[in-house]
Amino acid sequence: MPEIPSVPALWHFPARPASVMRARHTVARALPKGLLPGLTDDLGLLTSELVTNAIRHGSHREDDLVELVLWPADGHYWIAVSDRGPTRPLAAPARPDADAETGRGLFLVDRLAAAWGVRTRPVRGTSVIAGLPIRRGG
């Protein structure tokens, strides 16, 4: 009989800047004890970057929501951040100028994540999914 996978954690946040910190804290509280602090920090940074991008580039109305899913699978923690916007994120990170104040989000995701990608949602919008290897403290 196959092993039943864990149910992913799912949250919705208003597409507003204040939701970035709420999402980061929500993910930190959802993680089990015993993870290395670096993994918790990296998952928090991925969450912040992906939620920020979804709010900034994917939401166009005040009542839009950003969806966040977190789940462990195949030795990784996976984060999927989705929005209903029509704009598809870049498939590769941009290289902003040294003086640029924004534009480093996907560059950070690319450096931190073991794997990441952009998926079109079946009805409308996109999801950006990133995974980090699980490293247990101990």
Automatic annotation (TrEMBL):
Keyword hit for ATP-binding: yes
Cited SUPFAM superfamilies: ATPase domain of HSP90 chaperone/DNA topoisomerase II/histidine kinase
Coiled coil stretches, renumbered: none
Residue span(s) of domain Histidine kinase/HSP90-like ATPase: 13-128
UniProt keyword terms in alphabetical order: ATP-binding, Kinase, Nucleotide-binding, Serine/threonine-protein kinase, Transferase
Stored CDD domains: HATPase_RsbW-like
InterPro entries: Anti-sigma-factor_SerPK, HATPase_C_sf, HATPase_dom
UniProt GO molecular function: ATP binding; protein serine/threonine kinase activity
Keyword Thylakoid applies: no
Protein name: ATP-binding protein
